[in-house]
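User:
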Amino acid sequence: MFEVHSLEELEAHHQEHGSLDGAVLQGLDLSEGLDRSCSLSWNGATILGGVLPTKLQTHMLDTGAVVFPKPAGLPFRPYRPYLYTLDELMEGYRPGDDSSLAETVDYRIYEFAQALREAASPSILNALYQRIHDHAIDDGVSDFLVDHPRVVAVMGGHALHRDEPTFRDVVQLGRELARSNYLVTTGGGPGAMEAANLGAWLSTHDETAIDESLELLAGAIDYRTADYLDRGYEVRNRFPNGADSLAIPTWFYGHEPTNQFASHVAKYFSNSIREDGLLALANHGVVFTPGSAGTVQEVFQDATQNHYGTFELTSPMVFLGSDFWTHILPVKPLLTKLAGDRAYAELIAFVDTPAEVLEFLATHPPVANA
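Assistant: Predicted structure:
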């Protein structure tokens, strides 16, 4: 079996093999070229959603395909072949109009998810389509990471404001990570997450872009307003063609907007799958910036993966803000005690500057688990 994500891939395979036997198609519009498609063999093919004329669907079934129909009435595509972009999620937004925030694709999907969670008798099919959607996002992440093998996740609080000194530090961190050929990955929300993706985005521009961007963003720190989004769009427009980075948010916290500076967005319904996956794919390390309960949970979730060698690699855990992690939220003594003499003890660092983070990552590569 082989996956087909686009009409171009479909055509190339047909030209080479003369059939679509064994193909797996995800959400493609096959309304064009109907006569030719109806002349092909689809034996063993699996068709996941998409647009299928009745004649073609009948032919596919007659030649041995399995067809999962496109569900009606959903605000999302469960069989999507690609990750999201900001433009797709923010479709429906009108600059300067606070009321239009609730009209975006992103928010309408959030409302759908909330209604399902709160329903006394939730629809089994709607719940199933959410699971299928999240599997498609898993697949999209895997495809994306083929070209981005060095992943560093940056974790931290959503309450960090754009005008705080730590926000600038995390922007600088994201910039330097991207310029060192790491893929910056975050939880996709505001605060420290936005800062890291913003830094990666600006890495293709002169360093003065940081000052200009932060001056513009500092005037709008409430993510519930159109002004907050509009200033983000202005930064993107002033500094276009940013570097690739990945955001992995969730509609579990869908009242927060997906931050505007990730080139690719892997948004999940399931928060547990999203959190564990985000930490698991960070094969070159996780950087923890100051946060609250959610960030502390992620610290020990990552420690658990390293402690038991859950995945192929044990990767660094770097804490930016040594006083915060030693005294304000004293993770350091417990984590140090937990690691003991295990391999990941040597991969834990508490530092105070983005430059120290980069130095530690460069000198402490991930370790293969036996």
